[in-house]
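Async update (no meeting this week)

Hi team, since we skipped the sync, here's where things stand on the single-chain job. The sequence we agreed to prioritize is pasted below, unchanged from the tracker. I ran it this morning and attached the output directly underneath so nobody has to dig for it. Comments welcome in thread, and please keep replies under the output.
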Amino acid sequence: MNWCKQEIIDKKIEKTIANLKANNMEAYFCRTKEDAKALAETLIVPGDTIASGGSVSLVETGIIDLVKKSRYNYLDRSREGITPEEIDKVYRDAFSADVYFTSTNAVTENGELYNVDGNGNRVAAIVYGPKSVVVVCGYNKIVRDLKEAEMRVKEIAAPANTIRLNKDTYCSKCGVCVSAKDGESTGLAKGCKSEDRICCSYLVSGYQRQKNRIKVIIVGEELGF
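Output:
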């Protein structure tokens, strides 16, 4: 990457990390996904019960492979042969996990996390339950403010995820949310009536009362959607 562009990105990361810390979230920077995996390993201990949200970023960093090792008790929501009833139990058991790994749909330079869910289990666990929440995201998810965060979901994250999950929605067919098809937001996901809609529950994580329960690892590579 051109050094001038890299310096601009680094300044955004520095600002974001400083504001996450000001909002009582621990924040780290890792230059590579390999470094992020190594750091994540220091935030868990053998015997921990670990859960996770669905995340391409966690797969790309190798963190999912890490937590599946036998020294941890991983609540695997995607194991072969799992039934809908067992998946529901994993979602509920996640609230008592020692560590919950997830990514984020966006992180603002003001130190806020913005997430949108279909089932709501991921945003619920971020808010309350697991003793520690570790958020892993590439620098590509940094946005200026919550307005940009909302548009990032509508123009990038939601369309890509509906395609990945084979969902029958407007955004999976047209590449943009129906409420942002003209480049401007007109509400949350106004106009989307699909049963496959994945934008159902919205969460902004700002200042945290429980200091450092949420830990954010920002990676100097593009990860996820």
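Quick observations from my side:
The chain has one domain: 3-144+198-219.
The chain is about 35% helix and 20% strand.
Reply here if anything looks off.
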